[in-house]
Amino acid sequence: MHEHDVIVVGAGGAGLRAAIAAHEEGADVAMVTKLHPVRSHTGAAEGGINAALRDGDDWELHAYDTMKGSDYLGDAPAIETLAQDAPDEVIQLEHWGMPFSREDDGRVSQRPFGGLSFPRTTYAGAETGHHLLHTMYEQVVKRGIQVYDEYYVSQLAVTDHDDPTERTCHGVVAYDIKSGEIVGFQARDGVVLATGGDGQVFDHTTNAVANTGDGAAMAYRAGVPVEDMEFVQFHPTTLPSTGVLISEGVRGEGGILYNSEGERFMFEHGYANNAGELASRDVVARAELTEVNQGRGINDEYVYLDMRHLGEERIYDRLENIIHLAEDFEGVNPVEEPMPVKPGQHYHMGGIETNEHGETCIEGLYAAGECACASVHGSNRLGGNALPELIVFGARAGRHAAGKDLGEAEVPTGPSARSEDENSIETPVEPGAIDTGDEDVIADGAMVDAENLVQAAVDAEQRRVDELLEREGTNHAEIREDLQKAMTENVNVFRNKESLKDALEIIRECRERYQHVAVSDPSRTFNTDLIHTIETRNLIDIAETITLGALARDEFRGAHWRQEHQERKDDEWLKHTMIAWNDGTPDLYYKPVILEGEEKEYEPKVRSY
Q1: Is residue 104 part of a domain?
Q2: Same domain, residue pair 209 and 265
Q3: Which residue range(s) make up the domain with 45?
Q4: What pTM did the predictor assign?
Q5: What whole-number distance in Å separates Cα of residue 397 and Cα of residue 404?
Q6: Catalytic residue among 111, 120, 221, 281
Q7: Are residues 532 and 396 in the same domain?
Q8: What's the total number of domains in the chain?
Q9: Is 562 within 8 Å of 553 (Cβ atoms)?
Q10: Is 281 among the catalytic positions?
């Protein structure tokens, strides 16, 4: 049993920033991570960090752009917190030594990004996330913060009171990949989940293999509602063969999209008459797929992204890694020829419900980064807003978990925020758990002693792992493949009622088959088959919440496109979709969006670019 004041699960951008912030508040901090920190998926972020740093720009403009980009489903207190805190966080990174790209006069460079009214995206070439990770990991090492590397956290140690708001998180349970032990981590003050995204729900994604929604799934089963799960961002420029991301920085520098007929379709077909390629990501992704579906795609699959006209010197100076990605994965030299691109799953706007301090409705449990939903991004995230979210809300969660008073939060969490129940959606199958016991997820609330509670959770997890290793059964990979295909085919950029119901039926089949899953590798150490088997359970839960939310929301807002409902319905749907794990049954309800900010109320307008 390991014991610390604050346990941070995950060591990407949000986790590193949370750990540093908690340490600065005097806490004994430890990071528990299934990957070495600099291997975290934040390292794949290419484009940049939005922050209002220059004359002519200010945080209010950044907040307005973010609210507009969210299609008015973001919560104003969280959005304004992001915009206000981002400049200081970027300056802090610069002081820590982050090698930002610079202008000739020495100022940090900023480039245009989609949906922004000012070129406020700071960057470090096209490897911004890579440099961000290394810069903050240096600070973790400098401070002597304990890092438990290659420990896979598989469940939370949470009391089982009937009311989730009366529950307390006292720690986590992890599989030590090197030794094979199941280990407990007791948190005296708080646990911060910073586990990243869940792109492996889909089979074409920019996300790493490790992005399996672990934090969101564990928090969901422990009683924290998940919010706006239907809103999944499909990045418009990924390489067709692999899903590897081609940065929005290419379009920010002036790259253009064209179809098989040589048309610059963003303008010529009226998808975004003003912003063109720099419209928000949901607009560009739908435009590309529309071109393909109407017969103007290349090889009936993709379009071209061209940056040749930028010139070799500028490309090598600002976008060098894009050359290597295109050459390595598509055999294309983008200095000499256009790159094939198509939309791919990239980011999840939804996640664990938190307030602007990173708190969930369970005492002692926090979340930050992509696994969380404050809500900053609403129904669509603007490019360049993910990295400031990591550092702003990672820092806030770390400070609050360590005991710093950040004032009263304005964003409500938990069942008390409920404004109305679901509007009676019809599902073809019963969603939720097959066996609703879930005794392996939530420890006994009667245990008031935190150490005994964590130990009980360790014992329960040990029994589960032993059973998976010792029994005969189905391999998880077969289930995961079917799940990913079903989500890509039915819950993609374009959605309709029947396809969503088809997805729910397949998800149910996957859940039933998972009851008989077994691990084929009998070894106790470095057992990736065991890890992937546990991850697959998380993917099933996440896929179901995405699909239920998508079926419930019968409107077209941001990244959520419904064939039967081709308009935004502010009178009916200006609210967050919430799903809670109620004794194994998903409980769908809603809570209102907060459009009232510090000094103004954001009025929903037509979102055009």
Answers
A1: yes
A2: no
A3: 1-231+349-402+415-421+437-609
A4: 0.96
A5: 10
A6: 281
A7: yes
A8: 2
A9: yes
A10: yes
